[in-house]
Amino acid sequence: RDQHDYLYYAIDLAYAELAQIKNHDGDEGDAAGKSRNILAVNQRMKINRLMAQLNGMPLPDGSDELIPTDHCIVSSRPNPFNSSTTVDYVLTEAVFTSLKVYDLNGRLVNVLHSEYTKMGRHSIVWNATDMPSGVYVCRLEAGKVCDDVKLVIVR
Description:
30% helix, four-stranded antiparallel beta sheet, alpha+beta
């Protein structure tokens, strides 16, 4: 049962990542656009593998490892944002976890979460109404693993 729950979480998160890739706005050259297309194809393959694993079907491409092996930030939504954003992350095991926001000078501006956290998908809202417009970095520290996501406040 736990593995099925985890697979459902992983599939939801994979779809959220795919939506973020597909909805990316920006003036980018051909190389960046091609990179996004490659990311989208890889994300669709990941979803297909997860669905196959969930349904007990043979895994495509001979893959036998589909459940993430490291903790990671999956997305922030919306991003860019005006007043608040939700940061989604997944933990592959119960571990002490911190989720902190830094400005581009490396100064800590907010601690969103700092406690022992169970395995699975988690979401935390950052209310940034008092923060100026700009680019920030949200850092997940879970055990020995770190992952970052860029957050953009637009007023």
